[in-house]
Amino acid sequence: MKDLDIVAGAGIWGCTVARRLAEAGRKVLVLERRPVAGGNVRCETDRSTGIEVHVYGSHIFHTHSREVWDFIRRFTDFNGYQHKVLAMYKGAVYHLPLGLTLINKFFGVELKPGEVDAFMSDPAHSTAIFDAFFRGYTSKQWGRPPEAIDPGIIKRVPVRGNYDTNYFNDYWQGIPSDGYNALFDRLLDHPSITVECNRAVTLGEIVRSDARKVYYSGPVDSLFDYRFGALPWRSLRFETEKLDVADFQGTSVMNYTEADVPWTRIHEFKHYHPELKDAMSAPATVICREYPKTWAPGDEPYYPVNTPESSALLARYAQEAAKVPNLVVGGRLGQYKYYDMDQAVLAALELDLGLR
Ligand SMILES: Cc1cc2nc3c(=O)[nH]c(=O)nc-3n(C[C@H](O)[C@H](O)[C@H](O)COP(=O)(O)OP(=O)(O)OC[C@H]3O[C@@H](n4cnc5c(N)ncnc54)[C@H](O)[C@@H]3O)c2cc1C
């Protein structure tokens, strides 16, 4: 079976690795724990409206990497969506990120470019902004006050001195024109790739397997049955609801920055495809409230919590992984690292497949 490679985990990292292997002439078996490929980028289409619902929270593709963009564009077009994020604070709506639009509205002033830094260097101003837009949100997101995460955080909140309300600075961004699922279908559509879903791969299987390599992108702690303890993940709970209104909040993502609102944000998915006129004008919409929570066994792991203890624990798991000769661990769960989609693709494109 040395002519076979196994890819365990069909997220964007695993699918990119699978595609590269297949195009290099390898036979590839993709094994995915869930019933479908796509990892956390997977979507479902609401049948009656045609709205693409992001099952694991909003995903906007954005990148500055020509290599990533050229690769991903082989499998999809993008619709040109430009991401904006609004924030609800005490019943008023503000444009993030922190820039002239937000500061002028919040303080009722008319600052000009070039005046922002001096204005924000007044601790009364920076503290007021921090308390309104960052303190509650960060506490909800991480389950700890911001100063417990990073004592210098108030001084380092990035401020834009202009009216640019684009959330990302990346050169390319958008949503796949015919949806994320079609992107994954095309990535895996190769005569040398076989996909089996509902197949959770175990360490025992990997050790016994005579595949040349097993590329694993599930959680590294779960692969080793949490033998040194669980890594401290943050999890999320999504509450999705279909409403009989054409437009619930007028935008795709609204952050709720107050600590006593239990969700961090509300997603409204139809706004990701403004070009789909039928879905946009449908008299119904799909929204999703996102609630952060501490990870417990059985929950999906979403975000790594980086502390000195978690780094030490990760190093122990990495040492264990290195002892398994045919195992390659990657992706956001395998590396215990927050990756945007483009970073996961880049990591997969740069991985040495050992095929010379
Ligand atoms: C709430 C949220 C919002 C995000 N929004 C954005 C965004 O707007 N833009 C952006 O670029 N990025 C975003 N990201 C990041 C994005 O989700 C990741 O970049 C991407 O999911 C990484 O892909 P991956 O393949 O590494 O991991 P995953 O997508 O998690 O894929 C791993 C796969 O492995 C499978 N698996 C696990 N264990 C096993 C096993 N034992 N055997 C077989 N299969 C297994 C899992 O079921 C999963 O399908 C967001 C992340 C979160 C949490």
Give a nutshell description of this structure.
The protein has 356 residues and is α/β, with parallel strands linked by helices.
Please describe the structure with a list of short key phrases separated by commas or semicolons.
alpha/beta, Rossmann fold, 5-stranded parallel sheet, 13 helices, 20% strand, binds flavin-adenine dinucleotide
Give me the secondary-structure topology.
Blueprint: E1 4-8, H1 12-23, E2 27-31, E3 43-45, E4 52-54, E5 61-63, H2 66-72, E6 86-89, E7 92-95, H3 100-107, H4 116-120, H5 123-142, H6 146-149, E8 172-174, H7 180-188, E9 193-196, H8 203-208, E10 213-216, H9 220-223, E11 233-243, E12 253-256, E13 265-268, H10 277-281, E14 285-294, E15 303-304, H11 308-322, E16 327-329, H12 331-334, H13 341-350
Parallel strand pairs: 1-2, 1-10, 2-9, 6-12, 10-16
Antiparallel strand pairs: 3-4, 5-8, 6-7, 11-14, 11-15, 12-13, 13-14
Helix pairs in contact: 1-13, 2-13
The structure holds flavin-adenine dinucleotide (FAD).
What does it look like?
This protein is of the alpha/beta class and 356 residues long. It folds into three domains: 4-82 and 172-232 and 303-350, 3-Layer(aba) Sandwich (Rossmann fold); 97-156, no CATH class; 235-294, no CATH class. Helix content is 31%, strand content 20%. It has a seven-stranded mixed sheet. The protein has a five-stranded parallel sheet with strand order 9-2-1-10-16, covered by helices on one side. β3 and β4 (52-54) form a beta hairpin. The two termini are 18 Å apart. The model has no long low-confidence stretch (mean pLDDT 95).
